[in-house]
C-alpha cells in the first residue's frame, strides 16, 4: 500500500507562502519528487530531491530530510494559477520489488486553493 | 515539438471487449510508464519499461498487459476490461528512470 502521507487540502491567499508536507515510512528510496496537476490536466514535474536539503526553483522550493522521513514543497508569493493538486512521489522503494528505479509511488495529493 | 501522445483520449466500452490504449513519445526516452488515477487514490503505477523489451509490474498490474517492442511506443492492453478499470490513464516517459517524467494528456476510460 501507499507509504506517503500528504494533507488532502490546503487553502491560502494570494501573495502568501504555503508549505505542503509529505511524510513517508520506508527504509530507503532514490529520491523525492513533486508534481503539479491542474484540474483536467496532466501532472507536470516541479522538483526533485535526490539528497537531503533544499532545492530552489523560482517561487518553488522543495526540501528532504531522510533522517526525519519528511519532505515538503514550499510555494512563495502565491498566485491564483497555483491552485492545483500537488503530489509527492518516491522512486525505488526498497520494500517494492527490491527498490527498482523504475517503480514510482505517488502520494494521494494535496489540493491547494488560492483565494484572492 | 517534444511530447507524449496517447490515443484515444476518451473511450467508452463494455465489459470483456479487448482494447488497447496507445502511447508514443518522440524524445528518444528509454523509460516509459503507465499510471491510473482515481479520485482519492492519487496516481498508481500499472507497468513500467526501463528500455526496449524490458517491462516490469508497478503496484496495480492486475488486468493489464504492456509491450515495448520499439523505443517510442508503449501500448497498454486490457484483454478483458471490467468496470473497476474505469479510470483516467496517463502514460509518461523520461530519458532514464531517475530523471524528470513527461506525462501524456491522459485517456479517460469508461467500462460499462
Q: Could you outline the blueprint of secondary structure elements for this entry?
A:
The complex is a heterodimer of chains A (116) and B (112).
Chain A: E1 4-5, E2 9-13, E3 18-24, E4 31-37, E5 44-49, E6 53-57, E7 60-65, E8 70-75, E9 84-91, E10 104-106, E11 110-115
Parallel strand pairs in A: 2-11
Antiparallel strand pairs in A: 1-3, 3-8, 4-5, 4-9, 6-7, 7-8, 9-10, 9-11
Chain B: E1 4-7, E2 10-13, E3 19-25, E4 31-38, E5 42-51, E6 54-57, E7 65-66, E8 76-78, E9 87-94, E10 102-103, E11 107-111
Quick recap of the structure?
The complex is a heterodimer of chains A (116) and B (112). With 116 residues, chain A is mostly beta strands. Helix content of chain A is 0%, strand content 53%.
Which runs of chain A of at least 5 residues are low in confidence (pLDDT < 50)? none
Helical proportion of chain B? Answer: under 10%
Q: What kind of sheet is the major sheet of chain B?
A: 7 strands, mixed
Sheet-strand content of chain B, in percent, reads over 45%
> What is the tally of beta strands of chain A?
11
Overall pLDDT of chain A: 89
Can you describe what's shown?
The complex is a heterodimer of chains A (about 120) and B (about 110). With about 120 residues, chain A is mainly beta. Chain A is built from no helices and 11 strands. In chain A, the strands form 2 sheets. In chain A, strands 2, 4, 5, 9, 10 and 11 form a 6-stranded mixed β-sheet that branches. The model of chain A has no long low-confidence stretch (mean pLDDT about 90). Chain B has about 110 residues and is mainly beta. Helices cover about 0% and strands about 50% of the residues of chain B. Chain B contains no helices and 11 strands. In chain B, a hairpin with a 2-residue loop joins strand 5 and strand 6 (about 55). Chain B is globular and about 35 Å long.
Amino acid at each position: 500500500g501507499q507509504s506517503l502521507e500528504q494533507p488532502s487540502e490546503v487553502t491560502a491567499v494570494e501573495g502568501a507562502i504555503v508549505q505542503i508536507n509529505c511524510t513517508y515510512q520506508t527504509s530507503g528510496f532514490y529520491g523525492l519528487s513533486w508534481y503539479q496537476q491542474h484540474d483536467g490536466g496532466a501532472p507536470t514535474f516541479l522538483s526533485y530531491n535526490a539528497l537531503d536539503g533544499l532545492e530552489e526553483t523560482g517561487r518553488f522550493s522543495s526540501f528532504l530530510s531522510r533522517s526525519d522521513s519528511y519532505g515538503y514543497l514550499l510555494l512563495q508569493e502565491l498566485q491564483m494559477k497555483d491552485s492545483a493538486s500537488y503530489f509527492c512521489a518516491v522512486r525505488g522503494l526498497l520494500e517494492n520489488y527490491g527498490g527498482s528505479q523504475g517503480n514510482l509511488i505517488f502520494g494521494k495529493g494535496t489540493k491547494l486553493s488560492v483565494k484572492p | 515539438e517534444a511530447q507524449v501522445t496517447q490515443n484515444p483520449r476518451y473511450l467508452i466500452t463494455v465489459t470483456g471487449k479487448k482494447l488497447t490504449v496507445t502511447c508514443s513519445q518522440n524524445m528518444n526516452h528509454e523509460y516509459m510508464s503507465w499510471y491510473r488515477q482515481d479520485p482519492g487514490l492519487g496516481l498508481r503505477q500499472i507497468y513500467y519499461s526501463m528500455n526496449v523489451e524490458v517491462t516490469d509490474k508497478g503496484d496495480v498490474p492486475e488486468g493489464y498487459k504492456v509491450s515495448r517492442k520499439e523505443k517510442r511506443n508503449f501500448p497498454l492492453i486490457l484483454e478483458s476490461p471490467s468496470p473497476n478499470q474505469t479510470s483516467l490513464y496517463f502514460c509518461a516517459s523520461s530519458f532514464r528512470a531517475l530523471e524528470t517524467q513527461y506525462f501524456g494528456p491522459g485517456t479517460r476510460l469508461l467500462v460499462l
